[in-house]
Specification:
Strand content: 5-15%
CATH class of the largest domain: Alpha Beta
CATH superfamily of the largest domain: Crotonobetainyl-coa:carnitine coa-transferase, domain 1
Low-confidence stretches: 1-8
Helix content: 25-40%
Radius of gyration: 25 Å
CATH topology of the largest domain: Rossmann fold
Mean pLDDT: 94
Structural class: alpha/beta
Number of domains: 2
Number of strands: 14
């Protein structure tokens, strides 16, 4: 049975209560989109292949044979195990799609059509259905059939080119940011499509490409190239064209991130570090001038920070209302009182009785907040119940199990 959050035995229904979502994706992008909807009350039925299930179940660190990441990615969902290559399983998906509001998939383009489950077929069965399709390169274009993972999307979007020290090998962001950005764009698309359906009664297809989701967050990269032929390059911890904004080494070996790039903020920063001459320099009164003289400014801030600990630097800057912060490890996050006060350090009781911390739910809604209603399911935990809800008898379910077409939980 599912276990509720230890801190809340009666979580709110959520603004998406009553919304039925069918998740056919795996790993990160599609399931993250479905998780985001489930956190706010949507009923999510996750379809997984019998046997191994979603590969994420075995990714990174495992507890009792299952990834703890899985507990975050699949909270609030139900799991049924179906072999989508089987016509009988495909028929079950069609029956579920008839009753669903949203279907989410992140297979390679053409896979759903190969199973007879493409959007045209599904929308004919349920004209109100909203189909979110997440893929590496989108459903159209010359690259549509290429395999695409988030890391490739991050490179193609231009992000990877910028994440490095000048002259050194570009590095990846330490999490699957391409998949997550695509998932969030998918959620936006679903909510827009729901609003359109509210007016028109019609469903539609939401086509999200991983590389486009990342590219959408690349700020002025393209217009600067278009207008000036400027190819922005890596700048390490600095923020090119905005000054001062950098990471400065401190006496205890840590770094202080200081953003003094507002005109009035810059003057307060210069007062704190004892450089009224820079605050009064007319050439540094606006961002354009500061960018031109950024090395001089960074040297002054760096000299001041190098003689102080990170804590001292942050305390002095906080008094002057200068934005600054430290670089957190997860241990810092787990001990931080602000994270705790904002409900971002949820603790659940797992099915074996042990406690597990996981990120809280965002965004924060004042009237209809999200909640943790059930733990991530075991593979096929809800197969029998979901099929019973479709009117399939236990005898029929047992026959499908005997043929390996469906599977129930082994726990």
């Amino acid at each position: 049975m599912a276990t509720l959050l230890s801190s809340s035995t009666n979580p709110p229904a959520g603004p998406l209560a009553g919304l039925k979502v069918l998740e056919l994706g795996q790993l990160i992008a599609g399931p993250f989109a479905a998780k985001s909807l489930a956190d706010f009350g949507a009923e999510v039925i996750k379809i997984e292949p019998p046997g191994a299930g979603d590969p994420l179940r075995k990714w990174r660190l495992l507890k009792d044979g299952t990834s703890v990441w899985w507990q975050v990615q699949s909270r609030n969902k139900r799991s049924i195990a179906l072999d989508l290559k089987s016509p009988d399983a495909q028929d079950i998906v069609r029956r579920l799609a008839r009753e669903s509001d949203v279907l989410i998939e992140n297979f390679r383009p053409g896979a759903m059509e190969g199973w007879g489950l493409g959007p045209d077929a599904l929308l004919e069965l349920n004209p109100r259905l909203i189909v979110l399709r997440i893929s590496g390169y989108g459903q159209t274009g010359p690259y549509r059939d290429r395999p695409g993972f988030g890391v490739v999307a991050e490179a193609m979007s231009g992000l990877r080119h910028l994440t490095a020290e000048p002259g050194r090998v570009p590095v990846r962001v330490g999490v699957s940011i391409g998949d997550t950005l695509a998932a969030l764009h998918g959620v936006i698309g679903i909510l827009l499509a729901l609003q359109h359906r509210h007016v028109s009664g019609k469903g539609q297809v939401v086509d999200v490409a991983l590389y486009e989701a990342v590219f959408n967050c690349m700020e002025s990269l393209l217009p600067e190239y278009s207008a000036f032929g400027a190819v922005r390059g890596p700048a390490g911890s600095a923020l090119p064209g905005i000054a001062p904004s950098n990471a400065y080494p401190c006496s205890d070996g840590g770094y202080a991130l200081i953003a003094g790039n507002g005109d009035s903020i810059f003057k307060r920063l210069m007062a704190v570090i004892g450089r009224p001459d820079l605050a009064a320099d007319a050439r540094l009164a606006d961002n354009a001038g500061r960018v031109e003289h950024v090395e001089r400014i960074d040297a002054a801030i760096g000299e001041w920070a190098a003689s102080r600990t990170v804590d001292t630097v942050l305390a002095e800057l906080d008094k002057a209302s200068v934005p600054a912060g430290r670089i957190y490890t997860v241990a810092d996050i787990a001990a931080d009182p602000h994270y705790k006060a904002r409900g971002m350090l949820d603790q659940i009781t797992m099915d074996d009785g042990s406690a597990l911390a996981m990120p809280g739910i965002v965004p924060k809604l004042s009237l209809t907040p999200g909640g943790h209603r059930r733990n991530a399911p075991a593979l096929g935990q809800d197969t029998d119940a979901v099929l019973h809800e479709l009117g399939i008898t236990q005898v029929q379910i047992d026959a499908l199990k005997a043929r390996g077409i469906v599977a129930g939980s082994t726990k």
